[in-house]
Specification:
The complex is a heterodimer of chains A (285) and B (279). Chain A is α/β, with parallel strands linked by helices and 285 residues long. Chain A contains 11 helices and 10 strands. In chain A, the strands form 2 sheets. In chain A, strands 6-7-8-3-9-10 form a 6-stranded mixed sheet, with helices on both faces. In chain A, strands 2-1-4-5 form a 4-stranded antiparallel sheet, covered by helices on one side. The C terminus of chain A is likely disordered. The radius of gyration of chain B is 24 Å and the shape is globular. The mean pLDDT of chain B is 84. Chain B folds into 2 domains: 35 residues; 215 residues, Orthogonal Bundle (MetI-like fold), CATH 1.10.3720.10. The relative contact order of chain B is 0.11. Helix content of chain B is 81%, strand content 0%. Chain B has 279 residues and is an all-alpha fold. Classes of the chains: A alpha/beta (285), B mainly alpha (279). At the A-B interface, helix 2 and helix 4 of A face helix 8 and helix 9 of B.
Chain lengths: 285, 279
């Protein structure tokens, strides 16, 4: 149970996140969409406490995580894994070490300084990598890997944290369509199997429709849409992005056609994607 | 709006050029005034002295040449002294580098150090750099007696300040994304530095470290002149007695050890950075 109550973040006069209020009562896969600068990233970052909120509360199982300090704050960050657009791994370290860094919070500082990890940590890291299909790459340096692989390493690091929630800030924005599909599929699989909430900032509507149970639309810091993936109609999207009809179709068309074909492969039973493809084709024609 | 921006960019560019011009003029003025000052103070005069510049080296080389094969026998004789000097330099560089690392991490603006700490640490490093090793060594030899220990402390003190400054500049050039990743994981400051900063800065640290080791070999040799032992003591004796071949042998040994360190330095750098980054 997560309750967001009037979460607000202001940079000077600019309000980046404006009284965001909603409740997540059961583990869900949530997609957050909106234009660049709508406050999506800031919202996720203040949920993880990378930045501090100006006001409001986020109650996770009754605890206000926005008021945590010091060790308690770092313990919360451990519970709330974050996946970044640019992966934010340590490029010069190998894959398995990067994954084990997900355990830093449970590990003593002195042990960390000498880079000592337990057998348990190594086993868990390899299990996490195996889940993402990268176990055989464990000793490769992260900087030599492709973007899609790096993002999966980042997800494995997140799994290593044994989190209650996974936040993903534009996880597929720097990836090619195929890698994007693998990464989103992994996040969905983690949600399905581990039953944890995954909250994902997305640029592409079709990704939100295909992978998420619930979609939150943000515009100028405010939540302007909150509904199931099926309720995210082209009209609703147009409202979120604040664009006129022609612009909206043109902006989303390329991503919809690319994503819809991916979904057709992965899950042909989901109804409704035919219509989106038709829309997309109409727009590009 | 575009016009306003254009004006701003032009103004900035103009200021930048003005500053470049001023600094060049200042540099030129300093060099010229320094030359005339030195020229006035010298007893002989720079240009007349230039012709005699090679007389002393030539004399040393001639004396060494005259020794023939016996010249090479001087090397094993001075080897213990050389090892002592290298020892002083190595110990001083290692201790200095440890302190430099601590100081540099506390004086980097991008590592979330409390802002008040940064200028304090930077001034401490300034003080450490301001005192020449020779002065500190003379003072310590007076207090602790003539031995390699005061020399090592003196060199380490200066090294902490000098390397600390270079290290902190390396720290400020890193990519902070990994650090943010580790913060999101819930790592504390030391853990973030250990895994987010150190892997990125280690190759540059190591090359600065080895450069400093080179410099410190020379500095330790000089400290021998004031009684700190090692090759410097031998050198001071050889020069004082006008023993040309011994002087030549000692210089050659110093040169060879610098070459050896340089080779070691490139080898270690390749090792740290990974050979694929050089091709």
């Amino acid at each position: 149970m997560i309750e967001f109550k009037n979460v607000t973040k202001a940079f000077g006069n600019m309000v980046a996140v404006d009284s965001v209020t909603f409740t997540v009562d059961k583990p869900q896969m949530i997609g957050v969409i909106g234009r660049s600068g709508a406050g999506k990233s800031t919202f996720l970052r203040l949920f993880n406490r990378l930045t501090s909120a100006t006001s409001g509360q986020i109650l996770v199982e009754g605890t206000d995580v926005l008021s945590l300090k010091g060790n308690a704050k770092r313990r919360w960050q451990k519970d709330c894994a974050m996946i970044f657009q640019q992966f934010n791994l340590v490029p010069r370290l190998d894959v398995v070490t990067n994954v084990m860094l997900g355990r830093l919070n449970q590990q003593g500082t002195l042990r960390s300084m000498f880079k000592i990890f337990s057998q348990q940590d190594i086993d868990d890291a390899l299990a996490a990598l195996d889940r993402l299909g990268l176990a055989e790459r464990a000793l490769q340096r992260v900087e030599t890997m492709s973007g899609g692989q790096q993002q999966r390493v980042a997800i494995a690091r997140g799994l290593m944290q044994a989190p209650k929630i996974i936040l993903a800030d534009e996880p597929i924005a720097s990836l090619d369509p195929l890698s994007a599909e693998v990464v989103m599929g992994s996040l969905r699989e983690i949600h399905d199997r581990d039953g944890i909430t995954v909250m994902c900032n997305l640029h592409t509507l079709d990704t939100a429709r295909s992978y998420c149970d619930r979609v939150i639309g943000m515009s100028q810091g405010k939540v302007v849409f909150d509904g199931t993936a099926d309720e995210l109609t082209p009209e609703a999207a147009r409202e979120i992005y604040g664009a006129d009809e022609a612009l909206n179709e043109a902006v989303t068309s390329t991503s919809i056609s690319a994503g819809a074909s991916a979904r057709a492969k992965s899950d042909p039973s989901v109804p409704g994607h035919g219509a989106t493809v038709a829309e997309a084709n109409a727009a590009t024609a | 709006m575009v016009e306003v921006m254009r004006q701003e960019v032009l103004a900035l560019e103009g200021r930048r050029r003005l500053y470049t011009g001023l600094s060049l003029a200042l540099l030129l003025a300093v060099v010229l005034s320094g030359y005339s000052e030195a020229s006035a103070l010298n007893s002989g005069g720079f240009l007349q002295g230039l012709s005699k510049f090679f007389d002393y080296p030539a004399q040393i080389v001639m004396q060494a040449w005259d020794q023939g094969w016996a010249f090479w026998a001087l090397f094993p004789k001075f080897l213990p002294a050389l090892i002592e000097t290298l020892n002083i330099a190595a110990v001083a560089t290692l201790i200095g580098a440890v302190f430099a690392m601590i100081l540099s991490l506390l004086s980097s603006r991008n590592l979330e150090v409390p802002p008040a700490v940064i200028p304090v640490v930077r001034r401490i490093m300034d003080i450490m750099r301001a005192f020449p090793e020779l002065i500190i060594a003379l003072f310590l030899i007076f207090v602790l007696g003539a031995s390699p220990v005061p020399a090592a402390i003196a060199v380490a003190f200066h090294t902490s300040g000098a390397l600390g400054k270079l290290f902190s500049e390396v720290n400020e050039n890193i990519d902070v994304k990994p650090l943010e990743g580790l913060k999101a994981v819930g790592g504390n400051w030391l853990q973030r530095v250990r895994f987010g900063v150190i892997p990125q800065v280690l190759p540059n640290y190591s090359s600065y470290f080895l450069l400093r080791f080179e410099i410190n070999v020379r500095a330790s040799a000089i400290l021998g002149f004031v009684g700190a032992g090692g090759i410097g003591t031998e050198l001071s004796r050889a020069i004082g007695w006008g023993a040309g071949s011994e002087t030549a042998a000692l210089f050659l040994m110093l040169f060879l050890s610098i070459v050896a360190i340089d080779q070691l330095s490139s080898y270690l750098r390749r090792h740290f950075v990974g050979a694929d980054n050089f091709s």
